Amino acid sequence: MNPQIVRDGVRWLIAKPIPTLLAGVVLALALGIGTVAFSVLNAAILRPAPYEDASQIVAISNFHPQRGSGFGVSSGRFQDFRRDNRSFEDVAAFRTFNQTFVLTGVEEPKLLRGARVSKDFFHLLRVSPVLGRTFGSETDSEENRSVILSHTLWCRHYACDPNILGKPVALDGAEYIVIGVMPRSFKTYFDRPMELWLPLLEKGQLASERGLGDLHVLARLKRGITLQQAQTESAILDHRLAEQYPETDKDLSFRMSYWWPSITGGARPALAILSGAVALLLLIACSTMAFVLLAKAFSREKEISIRLACGASHLRLTGAFLVEGMLYGALAGGLGILLAFWGTHSIVALVPESIYIPRLNETRLDANVVGYSVAMAISVGLIFGLISAFSMIRTEPFTHLGGGAGTIIQNTLRKKVRISLVVLQMAVAIILTVGTGLMLKSLVLTTRVPLGFNSDRLLMSEIQLSPAVMSHPDSWRSYYREVTEKLTSTPGVESVAIVSPLPFGDEAFMGTVSSPTSTNKRDSLIRYISASFASSLGLTLTQGRPFLETDYSAKSEAVIVNETFVHSFWPEGDPVGKRISLDSKDAYTVVGVFKDFKDFNRTTPILPEIYLPFGKDVTPFAAAIVRIKSQDSFFPAVIRDQIRSADRNQPLPKVRALASFVSDDLASSRFFSVFLGGLACVALLLALIGIYATLSLSVGQRSREFAIRMALGADRLNVTTLVIKDSLLIIIGAEVLGITGALILAKSLSTLLFGVKPMDPVTLAAVALMSGTTALAASYVPTRAATDVDPAIILRSE
Predict the structure, then answer these.
(1) Which of the residue ranges 303-312, 328-337, 477-486, 747-756 has the most confident prediction, judged by mean pLDDT?
(2) Where do the H-state alpha helices sit in 448-489?
């Protein structure tokens, strides 16, 4: 390339440094945010699955006509499927529900999350341990005491000891022998990271259980077999199992889907919103850059005309414009990549856990991400270099040098380009503002949903007991009784309740309930509660009585239900005294009805729920809910120490205000509201600056026209009307374009909205009014300048 062309491009780049710097910072910020967003998208979806031939792996679940799909498979059905299928070369199962283990023998007992897996699990995923071996059977040994460690656990607690194989590890008070360590790169993406793996069947557990279960099943298709062929084959097996086991398998069938897309599919709505908003921000930054580059290009019209008149070629001038644009994009892109290095580390902390994005913690600037950022920077610079060149070198040079009528055409072109860019900026600002308005309205409506209980001064601590440490329900009862007594005797504590599973958690007990006095039969949530549960939460009994001390005896059959349960079974009758059956075996008598309250999350409709006495029936995992007399900051530590003192072998419990568990429901709405709101503010600010600059330039160019009009008798109102007309054209065009785009964005937000329609007329009207008002306010200063024109001064200078 001719060095003179490069020198011209550099000289043009550094001319007028302040607007160039401002536009460059905006572009660099947008490119940085875009790079971070692409790095998240790349990690979650675009990067290949971390398993060999992942496209051949299929997830298999149970389908029930009344319950739908996605239910776990029982051990018996898994064994039948693995034995009789002909479409898969490997079939494996794993269990993650309630697979937590207390690691002892270290400085502080730790609660670890693991999984129980079948012998073919690791072979199906085509992964081998870095040390040792995987399981050789479903039990792996007669004693069933083998364990495989994750690389993270191995290094964190055992200092990456290469001699770990064969050594004992204390889990739940029992001794397990380490037989393998998985590689650092091996991760599972089921629900939470796994730190250890054990054989599928626990000691003494049978593999013949049937019906619905809790096993996740994976299978690897044989070469040349399609998913449709495998599904057809499984239908034959469904029919045979239904005939062979009519009591458990009659209404069940296997459903199949490609495994890895099912994992990433849940993150697609959030990623679509993230990517769309970032694309809009990048569009604003590009329009700002175009505005600056075109303004600089138009300011060089006399230089370009002289060069063309002196014989300069169009190719040389185009090259100079391209060099300027490329340098502009390269500098902005380089700064954007530096910002992205910081942003990729921050995004993991900013995204709440409630927004599921697989491999989010693996987000990094790899070669693909850096290549994307470089390509974007070069493309932006190249495109706008061409736009600048195209806008300047197509006209005849003597048109500019002569100052003839051609300048009017050129000024009209400039005005149209400026107005188009400002309309685009304002339209994007409207789109993002509508999205923010919808999310904020949804957030407000969610916070107004009545909980049905008093969450003030309530603390909650999750308790997870090791069944091996406390292997009998009697020991669990003794432990919970001791915890209750210790907490009740603590100064400042008003009441204590034990409940399982914990409210506002991610686990739930379900059972099928029927009644001889009702034709209805449906699934219901099950919750075990202690005697003080209702008083601690301030619940209301609409009918019947609360649990008595006698209801916690082994012979008691008392049960309390909620109002939704009553409406499902006895919409017009008195439920108290009615009999119900749980899973066609346990029978209970309804003694009371709780007024409906939210104990799962704010946005989920209240489901039928039954409450059983905690103590008569007891589980090894529960929550202690404590109502305190005053909201003092030291209470969580006091509650934690009291629970810990009941058994030093249990991991240190975490104590939080119950209101914070409730608030976790709003994390997604808050994140997207803040995220879209921040982008909307930036977009609106840039749009208002664009309107101000466009109208100011227009007023400056028309100052002679305004002077002549006022000299001929026009008043301030006439001149103001001319200026306002220009601003109204911008506002109306932006409103139409923005509202149209907002309707498209709103549809993608529908899964995140609560109580708000995507095309909410109130939000659309409010945003249209607000954006129009602020745009008119931005045009006030140029309008005032137009009316302050002194005709004598302007005309004297002519």
Answers:
(1) 477-486
(2) 473-488
User: Residue 67 burial (CB < 10 Å; 0-12/13-18/19+)?
Assistant: middle
pLDDT category of residue 409 using cuts at 50, 70 and 90: very low
DSSP state of 780: H
Instruction: Kindly state the average pLDDT of the residues 639-656.
Output: 82
CA pair distance 200, 93, nearest whole angstrom: 8
Strand-pair category, 110-117 with 196-199: parallel
Q: Which residues contact 461 (CB under 8 A, 6 or more apart)?
A: 623, 624, 626, 639, 640, 643, 653, 654, 655, 656
Partner residues linked to 64 by β-bridges = 68
The CA-atom distances, in angstroms, between 616 and each of 24, 46, 589, 612 are: 69, 51, 15, 8
Whether the Cβ atoms of residue 231 and residue 257 lie closer than 8 Å to each other: no
CB 782 within 8 A of CB 722: no
Nearest-angstrom CA–CA distance, 620 and 465: 5
Which residue, 257, 256, 217, 253, is CA-closest to 64? 253
C-alpha dist (Å) from residue 773 to 69, 192, 642, 727? 51, 48, 59, 11
Q: CA 487 to CA 471: how far, in whole Å?
A: 24
Q: Where are the beta strands (DSSP E) in 584-620?
A: 586-594, 609-613
Least Cα distance to 286 among 23, 482, 617, 646 occurs for: 23
Task: Report the alpha-carbon distance of residue 590 to residue 226 in Å, rounded.
Answer: 51
Amino acid at 534: A
List Cβ neighbours of 524 (8 Å cut-off, separation of 6 or more). Answer: 510, 511, 512, 513, 565, 607, 608, 609, 610
Asked if residues 217 and 92 have their Cβ atoms less than 8 Å apart, the reply is: yes
Write the single-letter amino acid at 74: S
**3-state SS, one letter per residue, for 122-189:** HHHCCCCCCEECCCCCCCCCCCCCEEEECHHHHHHHHCCCCCCCCCEEEECCEEEEEEEECCCCCCCC
CA angle 226, 227, 233 (to 5 degrees): 95
Structure tokens at 249: 């398998």
The Cα 696–Cα 779 span in angstroms is 8
615 SS3 class: coil
Question: Exposure string (b/e) for 487-501, b if CB count within 10 Å is 16 or more?
Answer: beebeebebbbbbbb
Label the pairing between strands 509-515 and 57-64: unpaired
Query: Cβ(692)–Cβ(682) under 8 Å?
Result: no
User: Helical H runs in 15-132?
Assistant: 17-41, 75-84, 121-124
Confidence of residue 666 (pLDDT cuts 50, 70, 90): confident
How many Å apart are CA 216 and CA 208, to the nearest integer? 16
Measure the CA–CA gap between 358 and 463, rounded to whole angstroms.
28
Peptide bond into 501 cis (omega under 30): yes
Which of 700-728 are b and which e, b meaning 16 or more Cβ less than 10 Å from the residue's Cβ?
eebbeebbebbeeebeeeebeebbbebbe
Look at residues 322, 297, 328, 385 and name the one whose alpha carbon lies nearest to residue 13: 328
Contacts of 370 (CB under 8 A, 6+ apart): 337
Helix (H, G, I), strand (E, B) or coil at 194: coil
> 209 near 203, Cβ under 8 Å?
no
CA distances from 601 to 288, 497, 597, 659, 661 (A): 43, 20, 10, 12, 9
Task: Give Dmax (Cα) for the chain.
Answer: 107
Find out whether 433 and 680 touch, Cβ atoms under 8 Å. yes
Helix (H) or strand (E) holding 283: helix 268-299
Q: Mind listing the pLDDT tens digit for each residue in 75-132?
A: 889 999 999 889 999 999 998 877 888 887 777 788 888 899 998 999 999 999 999 9
Alpha carbons 643 and 638: distance in angstroms, whole number: 9
